[in-house]
Design a protein that fits this description.
Structural class: alpha/beta
CATH architecture of the largest domain: 3-Layer(aba) Sandwich
Number of domains: 2
Order of helices and strands: HEEHHEHEEHHEHEHEHEHEHEH
Shape: globular
CATH topology of the largest domain: Rossmann fold
Oligomer: single chain
CATH superfamily of the largest domain: Glycogen Phosphorylase B
Length: 332
């Protein structure tokens, strides 16, 4: 989710500069809601950035790499991307598997960063862009500049609107604070009882506090609601609902995770709680924010299950103070 949201400003810039271009995107199926409302198709369902989605269940393939069904599905994706006869294939994730899908398009130009996150991926590109930006969004726009041959602005990305989800979100009491405690791995996950403490303090200050409960995060959200003395409400949200609720939030509090990047994409104020990942590269971008990170935390993408030591030095009081300060500033 974060990789898509970090690339969306660059692709939005391409779409706005060249509305006549045909743009396709290869994605995992669970992220379709970032492009299409109502389960519909791009460009006809509230999402004007892309014309074509190619569904690539790469994680499913990895679980069953030798299955005939996997090979058949991979052949399907290859046929789809080649049939589009794209002029350029661009890889913005810095990942080998994404670069392989880019090569399946059989374009003359396969463009990616000269120093991708996974170094081997660079050998799958025939055009390598030397990026200078620190933040991953800046780097993605530099890659887009190389495709367009011009200096593009960095816009807020375009995201879909699902009318039913928007109507449900509009019923939530205001002012609203959204907590999103999940993370890609345990080292980035701030303790749930601290989120609960923050929720209780914000509720006392007059805010409605909702805890985002994504897939497999129901227990985490329940722990926060219980530790907040029920000041917070755990709310299971699909992608359309998460977008709609985030649009109405006065503030989002989260770690380095997809919902935080979604809040930034929507221009919402955020408090980011960071540990093993670098906020200079992956933190809030062009939105009102407070970032909390211990100075001794080091960049480490090892998938550890326990919270990183520096992350645990950030207290509930630290987050509450940052949240209330930012709320006062943005309200004024």
């Amino acid at each position: 989710m974060g990789d898509i949201l970090h690339s969306l400003p660059a692709v939005t810039a391409l779409r706005q500069a060249h509305p006549e271009w045909v743009i396709g995107w290869a994605i995992e199926p669970q992220w379709r809601g970032l492009f299409c409302a109502n389960g519909g198709e791009p460009r006809t369902s509230g999402m004007p950035v892309v014309d074509q989605l190619h569904i690539v269940p790469a994680r499913q393939w990895a679980r069953r790499p030798l299955s005939p069904a996997t090979w058949k599905d991979m052949a399907r994706v290859r046929r789809e991307v080649r049939a589009m006869q794209y002029d350029v294939a661009v890889e913005m994730q810095g990942a080998v598997r994404a670069a392989i899908v880019a090569r399946w398009a059989r374009t003359d130009r396969i463009v990616g960063e000269a120093q991708p996150r996974e170094g081997v991926a660079r050998w799958l590109f025939n055009e390598r862009v030397e990026t200078r930006g620190v933040h991953v969004i800046e780097q993605s726009v530099e890659v887009a500049n190389a495709i367009a041959g011009e200096n593009l602005p960095i816009p807020l990305p375009l995201l879909p609107r699902d009318p039913a989800a928007e109507a449900r979100a509009a019923q939530l009491p205001q002012p609203l604070v959204l907590l999103s405690p999940g993370a890609g791995w345990g080292a980035k996950r701030w303790p749930p009882e601290r989120y609960g403490n923050v929720a209780r303090r914000l509720a006392e200050a007059g805010y409605t506090v909702v805890v985002n409960s994504g897939p497999a995060e129901e227990d985490l959200a329940r722990q926060i609601a219980e530790s907040s003395s029920r000041a917070a409400t755990a709310l299971p949200l699909d992608m359309a609902e998460l977008i709609a609720v985030t649009r109405r939030a006065a503030l989002v509090i989260a770690g380095d995770t997809g919902p935080l990047h979604l809040a930034c994409a929507l221009g919402k104020p955020v408090v980011g709680i960071y540990g093993p990942t670098d906020p200079a590269r992956n933190g809030p971008f062009h939105t009102p924010s407070r970032v909390l990170r211990h100075p001794e935390s080091v960049r480490d993408h090892t998938r550890r299950s326990e919270p990183e030591a520096g992350l645990l030095t950030i207290t509930a009081e630290d987050v509450t103070v940052a949240a209330l300060e930012l709320l006062r500033e943005t309200r004024s």
